[in-house]
Each structure stands twice: as structure tokens, then as C-alpha cells.
Design a protein that fits this description.
With 462 residues, the protein is α/β, with parallel strands linked by helices. 30% of the residues lie in helices and 24% in strands. It binds dihydropyrimidine-2,4(1H,3H)-dione (DUC) and zinc ion.
């Protein structure tokens, strides 16, 4: 199909300009002040913002957590994503402990995702064991288009010790790759969980108390000290709080390359959610937990100063029935929240409309920066000639209210229930296909696996 989008405002990280956009087959073929094209279907996008398709660099679909599997798999999850303007997700494939290879992990995640996705997709690779074979596999991963990795400083099934953390970071740096790292101090958190249980404190309100901000900041500090020794760039994923952010700034000021990712739940919710009656706090159990207002303010300010490079979701949804697994013991509540459908509209409503960030910064953290960091630029993350025609036609005047009654997730609860939205998705193009219009998916299952190149992000961090 050939489409001509006329009269819209094309948004990039550097500015917003009134331009027409011509799409043919899968690509953007022209961006200019005034385009005429007799062969194209003309779509009037006057008063609309045109964003490069949003990229969510942190989702968990079809993932086993606490002996259960996320409510959303790649089919339902990527439908929710595309309805919200996310044209690409980077999920996490994982190696398993016990002598397994990265290749096995990658194959397993391809089996989960291939043929089921309604947006484009790729994987980061979680490394949970380090040996000669794993080391040799890094180059094979790169050849498969996996150029970013994930390391955990918590969770028994995933954790790597400091020795391996150092060795892995060093190897990744040699290969011009980097890891996103889940930073929480496992040992102290385990002790705090044990104490809470001994004292009979078993409700979800204890969840933030056993995973305090100090133990996230400690892990960030340790990670960055190790990364410095290894000469490695790193990303702190799902950054939640001021103390951890201060550690990042210290390292940046000393010359280290540290990328930061946060998520809408840390920008928009505070830890009072864990006090909700009737076990409702379980809905918000995720790791790291939701923090305080002072932390939200710090994250918004950091974003306004371009010190946070990307906002992803950490999408990891469970039904209410699944969340009830921890009714008598909060440590058995499967951790995670849905979010992939509303990242763009929430950021627009509570970020741009409230004057906390600009439209251009929204474009950076949702599209342009993840595209660069994850080796997709300029194929994705920009509306320019030659790029994939992944375009979000955004209506700044569209209103909505988030509700589990209407959302697209397989999960039956939404942490942003009742949040008002000012600004909404009008249409979505995925590689030139019109896939979403009038809040409906009109063409599903169009997602393909994208092989990624190396990180090309080289903007100032401190
Ligand atoms: N945190 C969660 O809450 N869920 C999945 C993974 C993670 O790090
Ligand atoms: Zn995660």
C-alpha cells in the first residue's frame, strides 16, 4: 500500500515540524513540506502529531514467575502494545541455570513469540551463568541480532555473583555491547523478608519495606563500581528512586557511561498503593517496588534534564487470581504489572500536558533513544526517508480513562485504573501497514523479528 499522510506535525527529538509523509510498501519514502502523489491513499492528519513508532525496551510476555506464567503472552501482549502505539518491543530471552546455553534460551523465546506478534519484536538475552561456552556464544548472539543483555543482582534463578558480573561486563564491553542490570541487594532483601515473616507481617503492605530504596541504591553503587573496573557501559533498568539516581550521577560525573531507564509506574504511583484495603495492594507488587513522591519528582526532573534515556514498562501482568497466590504470604505474590498499552498516552498526559517534559523529549524516551541504544536507528525511532514506516498518528485532544473493563490485556486488573488521559492514539502504521484505527486492531499478527545492530547512542549523559 501507498499512503500519503497530509497536514500533520512530525515529531523528532530535535523539534516538531509540519510535514507531509509518503509511505510505500514498508518504508517512508518522502518527508516534505507539501507532497502530492496521485497513486497514494491520502489520509488527512491535520492537528495530529506523528511520532516514530514507540519502542518498549522492557517487556516480559509469557514469562514464568513464582511458579505461574504471566497472563499476557506474545499474542495478547503485542496486541495491547500496538493499540498503544508501540510498534516494537524488546522482551527478555533467558538462559537457564544448570549448564544451559544462551542459544537454547533464544530458541525457547523464538518459540514463544514467532508467528504470534502484532508488533515487531526482538530480545535482550539474560545471562544467568558464565562459563567458556557462554563467553563464546556472545558473538553468536550478536550475529542473531541480540546486541543487548540483561543481568540480575537479585532472584535466585537469575542472580550472577560479583565475579561473574565483572567478567560478563568486561566481555560485553569488548564486543561493543552492554547489559541492562536489575539492581537490588539480594542478601539483605532475603533477610528482611525472613524478619517480616517471623514477626507475622504477611500482607502486601510489607512488600516495599523489604525492598527499600537503599538496597536498590546499594546495588546500583556496586554495579557501577564493578562496571568502572571492567571499563563497561551499563544501563540501570527500572530505576525507581533518588538515592539510586544520585549514584548514577556520581558515576557519570566521574566519566562513566551509565544509561538509565524508568517506567510509568515509578513516575505516576506512590507507595500508598500498598496500603489499599482488602489485599488490593497486591496488584501493585513489582520489583523494585513503587516508591515515594520525592522519588517521582526526582525521576521527572531527571527526564526533563535528559538524564533518563528511556521510559519502558517492565510489562509483566498477572490476573487477580494469580496475585491471590500470596494472600497469606506477600513474598509469594507474583511480581509485575501490565503497562505496555498506556506508556505513550500516560507520558503525554502527565508529562507533556502538565509541562514536565516536551513533546520532543517524549519522542526521545519512547522512540529515538531506545532505537539508538538497541541498535535499531535509523531503521526505527525516526520519521525519515528510508526508515521503516512505523508511525503513531497521535490525537492531542482525544480523551480517555484507563480501565480494566476496556484494556486489551489478558490480565483483569490495571494499576492505572481510573487515570484520565488527555491525548490518544488515532492510527498506527507498522512497516507501512495501517494496523490500528478507531481503537481497533484492523490488521493483526504483522510483527516480525528484527535483527538489531550495535548501540549508536552517543549523546551527553551527565
Ligand atoms: N520485576 C517484576 O516485578 N516482574 C518481572 C521482573 C522484574 O524484574
Ligand atoms: Zn523486568
Amino acid at each position: 500500500m501507498r499512503y500519503l499522510l497530509k497536514g500533520g506535525t512530525v515529531v523528532s527529538g530535535n523539534g516538531s515540524f509540519r510535514k507531509d509523509v509518503l509511505i510505500s510498501d514498508e518504508k517512508i519514502i518522502k518527508v516534505d513540506d507539501h507532497i502530492e502523489d496521485a497513486a497514494a491513499v491520502v489520509i488527512d492528519v491535520t492537528n495530529r502529531l506523528l511520532f516514530p513508532g514507540f519502542i518498549d525496551g522492557h517487556t516480559h510476555f509469557d514469562l514464568e514467575v513464582c511458579g505461574t506464567v504471566t497472563a499476557d503472552d506474545f499474542a495478547s501482549g503485542t496486541k495491547a502494545a500496538i493499540l498503544g502505539g508501540t510498534t516494537m518491543v524488546v522482551d527478555f530471552a533467558s538462559q537457564e541455570k544448570g549448564g544451559h546455553t544462551l542459544k537454547e534460551g533464544l530458541q525457547k523465546w523464538h518459540e514463544k513469540a514467532d508467528g504470534k506478534c502484532s508488533c515487531d519484536y526482538s530480545f535482550h538475552m539474560s545471562i544467568v551463568e558464565w562459563n567458556e561456552t557462554t563467553e563464546q556464544e556472545i558473538q553468536e548472539m550478536i550475529a542473531e541480532g541480540i546486541t543487548s543483555f540483561k543481568l540480575y543482582m537479585t532472584y535466585p534463578a537469575m542472580i550472577v555473583n560479583d565475579t561473574d558480573l565483572y567478567k560478563i561486563l568486561k566481555k560485553l564491553a569488548e564486543e561493543n555491547c552492554f547489559a541492562g542490570v536489575h539492581c537490588e541487594n539480594a542478601g539483605v532483601i532475603d533477610a528482611l523478608i525472613e524478619e517480616a515473616k517471623e514477626q507475622g507481617r504477611l500482607g502486601p503492605e510489607n512488600h516495599p519495606l523489604v525492598r527499600p530504596d537503599t538496597m536498590e541504591a546499594e546495588a546500583v553503587h556496586r554495579l557501577l563500581a564493578i562496571a568502572k573496573e571492567a571499563g563497561a557501559p551499563v544501563m540501570v533498568v527500572h530505576l525507581t528512586n533518588k538515592k539510586a539516581f544520585d549514584e548514577i550521577q556520581k558515576a557519570r560525573n566521574a566519566g562513566q557511561i551509565v544509561y538509565a531507564e524508568t517506567c510509568p509506574q515509578y513516575l505516576l504511583l506512590d507507595d500508598s498503593v500498598y496500603q489499599k484495603p482488602d489485599y488490593e495492594g497486591a496488584k501493585y507488587v513489582c520489583a523494585p517496588p513503587i516508591r515515594k513522591k520525592v522519588d517521582q519528582d526526582c525521576l521527572w526532573k531527571a527526564m526533563a534534564e535528559d538524564k533518563i534515556q528511556t521510559v519502558a514498562t517492565d510489562q509483566c501482568s498477572f490476573t487477580w487470581e494469580q496475585k491471590r497466590m500470596g494472600l497469606h504470604d506477600f513474598s509469594k505474590i507474583p511480581g509485575g504489572l501490565p503497562g505496555v498499552q498506556t506508556r505513550g498516552t500516560l507520558l503525554y498526559t502527565y508529562g507533556v500536558r502538565q509541562g514536565r517534559i516536551t513533546t520532543e523529549q517524549m519522542c526521545k524516551v519512547l522512540s529515538e533513544n531506545p532505537s539508538k541504544l538497541y541498535g535499531l536507528y535509523p531503521q526505527k525511532g525516526v520519521i525519515a526517508e528510508g526508515s521503516d514506516a512505523d508511525i503513531v498518528v497521535f490525537d492531542p485532544e482525544k480523551e480517555g480513562i484507563i480501565s480494566a473493563d476496556t484494556h486489551a490485556y489478558a490480565a483483569d486488573n490495571n494499576p492505572f485504573e481510573g487515570f484520565a488521559l488527555q491525548g490518544g492514539i488515532d492510527k498506527v502504521f507498522l512497516r507501512g501497514h495501517l494496523v490500528v484505527a478507531q481503537d481497533q486492531i484492523i490488521l493483526e499478527n504483522q510483527g516480525t523479528y528484527i535483527k538489531r545492530l550495535l548501540n549508536s547512542f552517543n549523546e551527553k549523559l551527565a
